[in-house]
Each structure stands twice: as structure tokens, then as C-alpha cells.
């Protein structure tokens, strides 16, 4: 990208992720010339004390835009499929949060702490990985570099905001109804709910859609995206993804089998020095990462690092991050900052 003192930026979508994008652009002092905020319909919004004009999306809206950060919906009628190629045609570099382009061979899939070098290879579109993938690879890549990885088994505990602003509203309404019953009735059946099940007072192992092999699309994202980002499809990865009644902050219980032996102390040391990682691991003092503590933070938090008592090279990690920030908006803005470096 041609060096400039300020860049014209478009943000597409003002949902759970789009709002955080606007916050991150300010937080990271991104050098913005013109900012164009787009969604399905025009209106004015307020984020913190700042007012933004939101315009109805159109191809022409991308004229003169240098970087377009997409946080709209996915799929055929979603913002990225309809407008990302159009934005590229009009000269913008697109950084897309959705899954539409992630696995295309010509589209770099980037977590700056792991594979920032891929950014240079872009042909107009750069993809931001899935939220649960980003935090896992930030924690695992330093270990992979040191001793290799043979096996990863991950169970996720994913917050409502990972499914967008309507899912957060579903959880809020369900909690309100349960509270109104004085916590006597814990079954709520909202019409037109955003998630496949009730989330308040519940968890469910169903994120994305089920495929013929009985895994969900979210579970396969963890496998395929990790392979692409690390650049090693030999790592045997298997996932169970679970929605939990947390507003924001995904947690993951990650079991790994390394190629070479590594001690817990060495893993702790490596992770303490790893970019974007904070180790919180003092179980005797009840210190370990929790979603309520990481909301608003852009790092990945790791704790409960411990050996498998039966498998020499087996280790457990507990990995927590803000899904709207490191899992989406701050990772995307980090990519944009790398792009203009
Ligand atoms: N939530 C997460 O933790 C997370 C993490 C990683 C990636 N992602 C991905 O990020 C994207 C946004 O997710 P979200 O959670 O922010 O969703 P969301 O809360 O449902 O918000 C979606 C936003 O996109 C806009 N939009 C939808 N279709 C559009 C179209 N055709 N043209 C223009 N704008 C359109 C909507 O506009 P209106 O406001 O006008 O309806 C809304 O502002 C999705 O692709 C999601 O998979 C989300």
C-alpha cells in the first residue's frame, strides 16, 4: 500500500464487531483521513461520546477508500460477498471479518503475532480468522515453534456476543424473564431467537451448522483455519464448540501433544515472552483467566498450564480472550496497521 500520512477508511457493519472496530481505530490512533461507516440502512449512531453518520451501503461508497474493514453478515447476501470485490475494484484493500474468503488460496488469513508476513501477499482481500481460532493460535504458535505440535483437542466456551448483537439481546431478554419469575421458571422460549437454543441458565454444543460428519462449521473452522495460519496441515486437531451464558469473552480448554518433550516451566516462560499473550497462572491464589476479566482487553490470556499425568508430551492450557476485540476488531485493525507500516 502506498505510504500516506492518513488513509480513507470504510467500516462496514455497526453490530457487535463494527462498533468495536470504530473504538479500535481510535484506541490505536489509526491515521484516518476520511471515515465512512456503512450498514444496511442509514442513521446516526453514538459510540461512547462520539457521533457517527452511518450510510446505506453501495458500490460507489468505496470510491476513494484505501482500507475497508468489513464486519457485516456472511453468506451470499452478506456484505462481504456483495461488496468486497466491488470495494477492491474501486481501489480499496478489504480486511474481512467473516468466513466467506478465509479459505481461498489467494486470500491471506492473518493473525499478526503468527503470520504477519502473509499480509504482503494479498490480492485485495485479507481475511480475519474466526474468533475462537485467533486466540488459540496466538497461545499455541510459540509452543509450536519451540517443540512442534502433534495433536490439539479443544473445547470452547463461547460467549453470546460471538453470535452478534441480537444474540446478546436474546441472553438479556431470557435473563430478564427468568428473573421476573423470581428464578422459579428457568425455561424460556423466545419467539425468533437469534441462537438455536435458550442460552440463559443453559449451555449448548451447537455453534454454526452441523455437517454430515456430525461436526459443526465452527468446529471445522478451528481445524482448517489453524492449519492455514500456522502453515502445517499435519497437526491433528479436533474441536467441540459450546455456547455459554457469558456476554463477551471466549474461553477454551486446549489439550496439546507436542512433538518433543517440554516442561510446564518452559511453556510458561515461552508464553510469558510471546507477543500478545499474558500468563495468569497461579491456581493456589485462585488466579486464572476468566471472561469477565478480559472484556475490553486486546491480549490473549493463558492459565491452568499443566501436564497430562499419563502422556509424557501432553499438556493442558486454559485460553481466554475478548472475542469482539482480539477475536475480531482489534485483530483486524492490527492487520490494517501492519498494512500501512
Ligand atoms: N461477534 C464476534 O465475536 C465475531 C468474531 C469474529 C468474526 N465475526 C464476524 O464478523 C461479522 C460481523 O459480526 P457481528 O457479530 O458484528 O454481527 P451483527 O452484530 O449481527 O452486526 C452485523 C452488522 O452488519 C450489517 N450488515 C448486515 N448485512 C449487511 C449488508 N448486506 N450490507 C451492509 N451491512 C450489512 C448490519 O447492518 P444493520 O445494522 O443496518 O442491520 C449490522 O450493522 C460476521 O461476519 C461475523 O461472523 C464476529
Structural write-up:
The protein is α/β, with parallel strands linked by helices and 341 residues long. The chain is 30% helix and 24% strand. The protein has 9 helices and 13 strands. The chain has helices at residues 16-27, 79-89, 112-115, 131-147, 165-180, 217-230, 264-272, 291-294, 325-339; strands spanning 7-12, 32-39, 43-47, 50-56, 67-70, 93-96, 125-127, 149-158, 236-243, 250-258, 277-279, 300-307, 314-321. Strand 1, helix 1 (16-27) and strand 2 (32-39) form a beta-alpha-beta unit. Bound molecules: NADP nicotinamide-adenine-dinucleotide phosphate. NADP nicotinamide-adenine-dinucleotide phosphate binds next to helix 1, strand 2, helix 2, helix 5 and helix 9.
